[in-house]
Please model this.
Amino acid sequence: MSNDTASTAGEASSEAPKKAPAAAHEPLVRLDGVSQEFPGEDGSATNKVLQDISFTADGRETVAILGPSGCGKSTILRLVSGMYDRFVKMPTGGEVKISGKKVTGPHDAVLTVFQKPVLKSWLNVRNNVLLPFKAGLWGKGVSQKEREERADEVLEAVGLTDSKTLYPRQLSGGMQQRVSLAARLVLRPQILCLDEPFSALDPQTRKEMQELVLELWEKFPCLGLFVTHDVSEALRVADRIIVLSTRPATIVVDLSIAAPKPRSDEWLRSSEAMELEAQIIRHIRDAAQGNSHGSISLDV
Ligand SMILES: Nc1ncnc2c1ncn2[C@@H]1O[C@H](COP(=O)(O)OP(=O)(O)O)[C@@H](O)[C@H]1O
Ligand SMILES: [Mg+2]
Model:
């Protein structure tokens, strides 16, 4: 018995310990052959929205998803965040993974900022920013003291320290969207989806918000998936631009934008930016092949 034990122990110690093979690095976001169909408006015909969409995004890059309205940009963000329509199979085909784990429903790695700010009218700015800690998994393990410190830090970063006691109705559209950004960044998401966040703002405010987003990325690094139908917005904020075709959307081109950020108006007027813009427009036109279900803004 003792011999057996000794021999077993001896064998075990003479062998190299068996380690699981090191897992290959999984990107934060992976879409693999994703397709999405919805029921058509008349309830019978099928609306094919996404077709064989594959891309990965990782680290702290900002990826702009650019495409005509109605092509399926918001649907891609919903697939990444797991905010599914409960009456529809999502995705219809392929799979979406976050850090190697298949997305099957809502999860806490991803937060989204929408075009329309989602603020509680009865809470002041600071309390709107603190509110997300009370929802879902996010606030667990974060002390009240830390929540308040983070809220004050992020309010400062979006330039609203002096407005923290105001209520949403007292804020301009741009200020409301600053609160929306703060109420996401306070949770320190790994992935932040922005769904045409500045489309409802006037051009000057919109430009200020684009500049603010670049500053915020420096202070609160995360992966950004920034949906827009505006080429100049994509050129200002993105490290990469994924251009989608009209419905059913396929990826027309995936472009890296190497120019250092922040990108000035001068850069946007430079020959480099003009050439990128022309390239994007050419790709969109080639993909459209005279078939148009939506429009894209080409005002660089
Ligand atoms: N839950 C849904 N049920 C049915 N159709 C949907 C649903 N969500 C989106 N769609 C349809 O999918 C298409 C793409 O929508 P969307 O992703 O919102 O486009 P985009 O954000 O590019 O403007 C549209 O035709 C829209 O009507
Ligand atoms: Mg949309």
